Amino acid sequence: MRPLLICDCDEVLLHMVRHFGVWLGEAHAIDFDLTHHDWSRAMRRRDGAPLSAEAMWGYLDGFFPAQMARQTPVPGAREALAALGEQADIVILTNLKDHCRDHRIAQLDRHGIAHRVECNQGGKGRPVARLVEEYAPSVAIFVDDLAQHHESVARAAPQVHRLHMVSEPALAAFVPTAPHAHARIDCWREAQRWIDARFAAGEPASQIHPSGELP
């Protein structure tokens, strides 16, 4: 049995919010404040007009897939995945609508990242549990930038090690560590060492109490 790495894409493998913000300003006269990870507070029209939640999600639909070429790779991500892929199966689990899957595969391939890609909407716990059942790995690790996905995976697949990573420096300082993650590492050089150590140990993850603390 091989280990399994299940990895998010945006703000883990590819920078997204910095390019999304530039596009919002250029195309829609909207300022995007990276210090607010709550997007309802981050997006502001320059003319002062209110911005509905529906409109905010609509702009995301406008970015994906049409503006995906703007995205740039996170330093060290390609090299880390190439090294980890020598011993482990890797799946990119990205929260995009299904019609974006081929675009995401091609986008990652252009940056030298060629692994299985699965699209998802909503919490990632169930799809992670399905992947673990499918691969039956010796050990599984999940990497994501959003706390809600770590909680979802903790509930649906508690044996999976969970690494919280926010690779955008302008955002990372303002994002609290996910309480249901086992560790927080925001650069791939250190993350690779952490993942390698869990692969070598081959042990399931420890349980996390509802408070978010490790037992």
Short description:
The protein is built from 9 helices and 10 strands. The chain has helices spanning 17-28, 39-42, 53-63, 77-84, 101-110, 125-135, 147-156, 169-172, 188-201; strands at 4-7, 14-15, 30-32, 43-45, 72-73, 89-94, 116-119, 140-144, 161-164, 183-184.
What does the model show?
This protein has 215 residues and is of the alpha/beta class. The chain has nine helices and ten strands. The chain has helices at 17-28, 39-42, 53-63, 77-84, 101-110, 125-135, 147-156, 169-172, 188-201; strands spanning 4-7, 14-15, 30-32, 43-45, 72-73, 89-94, 116-119, 140-144, 161-164, 183-184. The strands form three sheets. Strands 7-6-1-8-9-10 form a six-stranded parallel beta sheet, sandwiched between helices. The protein has a two-stranded antiparallel sheet with strand order 2-5. Strands 3-4 form a two-stranded antiparallel sheet. Helix 4 runs parallel beside helix 9 and helix 6 (125-135) packs across helix 7 (147-156). The radius of gyration is 17 Å and the shape is globular.
Map the helices and strands.
Blueprint: E1 4-7, E2 14-15, H1 17-28, E3 30-32, H2 39-42, E4 43-45, H3 53-63, E5 72-73, H4 77-84, E6 89-94, H5 101-110, E7 116-119, H6 125-135, E8 140-144, H7 147-156, E9 161-164, H8 169-172, E10 183-184, H9 188-201
Parallel strand pairs: 1-6, 1-8, 6-7, 8-9, 9-10
Antiparallel strand pairs: 2-5, 3-4
Helix pairs in contact: 4-9, 6-7
